[in-house]
# Entry
Amino acid sequence: VEFLSHFSLAFRVALEPLNLLLCFVGVFIGTLIGVLPGLGPIATISILLPITFCFAPVQAIIMLAGVYYGAYYGGSTTSILINIPGEAASVVTCLDGYQMAKKGRAGPALGIAAIGSFIGGTFSLILMMFLAPLLSGIALKFGPPEFVGLAFLGLICVTYLTSGSMVKALMMAAVGVLLGCVGMDIITGRERFTLGLDTLSGGLEIVPMVMGLFGISEVLFNLEKAFQKREVFSVKKREILPTPKDWRDSSGAIIRGSLMGFILGLIPGGGGLLASFTSYAMEKKVAKNPESFGSGDIRGVAGPETANNAGAQSSFVPLMTMGIPCNAVMAVFLGALMLHGVTIGPRLIVDNPQLFWGVLGSMYIGNIMLLILNLPLIGLWVKLLKVPYPLLFPLIFMFCLIGAYCVGNNVHDIYVMILFGVAGYLFKKFDYEPAPLILAFVLAPMVENAFRQSLIISGGRMLIFFKRPVSAGLFFLGFLLLFSPLILRLLGRIRPALLMKGPDEDL
Amino acid sequence: MTSGVPGRGALPFLVGFILIILSVMVLILAMMKARGQGMRVAEEKFFLEEDSWKRVVLAIALLVLYGVFVTKLGYPVTTFLFLIFVLKVIEPQPWRKALIFSFLATTASYAIFKALEVNLPTGYWGF
# Structure
């Protein structure tokens, strides 16, 4: 009965005309930027944030969430047709998707990607409706020490799961914590790291930071290469539906992808990106003929594309039920909700059911819209792919510049964005992942407060973190994970192959 | 202030300390790797192509200039000029294309932002 009332609330909110329109705008823009290489969902959500200020929080989140999962639908199109990932989670789709296109099977590849995404998304949403109230019920019982433990475990998880060096990821997290300290210290009321500048006394804004790190830096990186014309495969509308054989081949991949994606979305450091890589690795492992992967196997498209969408949606659960963002996109959502004046945490579902269930409901609808946008209208996006980069990147610059300004009506944020753009460019050059930085930046102030509150409760004794069973358990897990590469190396083994990811690695 | 509760400097100090340790670790790991490859790391090129740095530096400079001028000349004028410069300097386009594109992009974005009641920077002349 409770489930049904949630269900009806979800659709009552999602079907309001304005919400429907914003959901459509969101998924449309999402597909658009997903198709266009060079602008990912993180930067786009930051750019769009200022224009959502004239809407209610629920409407803003409906639209911005649409951008996020919409980008995953669009990203696969670019991967399949021109062998360039439209966004990071579609990297593995290039491997088999592009090969399929080369063999003249671009249509079924695109079709199965969209249909798989739809199934994965829907599956993930249904599980979310059951899981979210449960999790927030547990999180409601958490005090400050448990929150510190949870955030600690989350951060370690993120650094563990980022591609490349864990030491570098930890460094990025440390820098993020320091950046999070900028501004007024809430407990003592004094300033830190403001360099005496008035603009910094309120802390750094997340929006210009993210735009710099994920938007500007990407463009700077791409500018290094002189521009070349891309070859785009053409698709006919009639060819888009997969054949019965394709269905039989990919049904297993879609089912496994849905489940895997859902679970990986819940883990800090997870989300769509990790889900797609892991799904590809798994499909290859369970296949009877793994050698067919990499030469146009439909399972290599169906699995990852299903998983990334399932993961993209389930990654909202930790944020909305516990206030812990799992990946950089969720960190931006946290920032967005705070700018809209919504307190995020376990009380969100209870205090603001409209927001939570409305956003969930809009995801159902958004998935249906995306299916329509991506199957019958595929020709539109293919045309878009022919927009040359020299015309595209000035537009990205323009939107970033104006977006940075509009968040606080402050020209200094433009300089903050440029600074982080240059920093992000250098991070990219030297293989530092910016995601842990953003997460630590968002989590640090919350954790610091909870940490001090815990010590106030205990009268200054650190033992409080290890006396309470839940926080002790979380800390234990965190330390275990932190030192696991060392422990495993001592045991003569390396990190499990399943967790290895990165476009340059042979999956 | 309750005794035993960390003050404002505790967290930055701790994290700064950790950062030092991690930096030393990265340095040592890199040196070990360099030794393994026979000290060839210095030969790795920083930029992809010969003239890559020009495009990157120009782009950064234009972005900074946008920030300097946008509060003086206002959104439409600065954006138009910025786009022209970007299109002519970084990856040169024909004049006609650059002018038309800049004009369309500026007017369209201005109209959209205005319709959504976004506060845009205005110049000396009030727009």
